[in-house]
Amino acid sequence: MASSERIRPPWWLKPLNKALMAATRIGILKDGPAVLTVTGRKSGQPRSTPITPFEVDGHRYVVGGFPGADWVRNAQASPDATLRLGKVREPVRMVELSAEEARPLLRQFPVLVPTGIDFMKNAGLVTGPNPDEFEKLAGRCSVFRFDSVYRRG
Hints:
This protein is α+β, with helices and mostly antiparallel strands. Helix content is 31%, strand content 27%. A hairpin with a 2-residue loop joins strand 3 and strand 4 (59-63).
C-alpha cells in the first residue's frame, strides 16, 4: 500500500477533469480517458475522475498520479467501483498492489502511458521517462488492478 504522503494537485486539475469527463460523455473525445467512479469515503456519494488504465498480461491497472489523491483514498476505503469507457460501464473491484507487485508495472508505465510522464513530472515525482524513477514510486503512488465484477439482475 502506498504511503499516506499527500501532494497537492495543481489548481487547474479539477476543472480540466470535469471538462474531460463532459467531452467524453457527449462523444467529443472518442478515445478519451476512462472515467472511474468510486464511493466517497466521507460523503458516501459517487465521485468520478478521468484515469488512464493500461494492460499488462491480460490484466488492467491504473496508477494514482498523486500520493494521497482523493480518488485513491476513496478506492482504498471502498474498492467497488465503476469504470466507464465511452458509453460502456463496467463494475469493477479495485485491488491495491503491494510495493513489490507494483514495481514491474511502474517500470512499464512510461512506455504504456506516455501521457502520464508529463503529469508525474509536473507533480515533481519524476524528472522524465526513466523506468528506474517510476519504479521508485512503488509504495508512494498507489497501483490498482481492476478485477471484473459481474452483477446479475
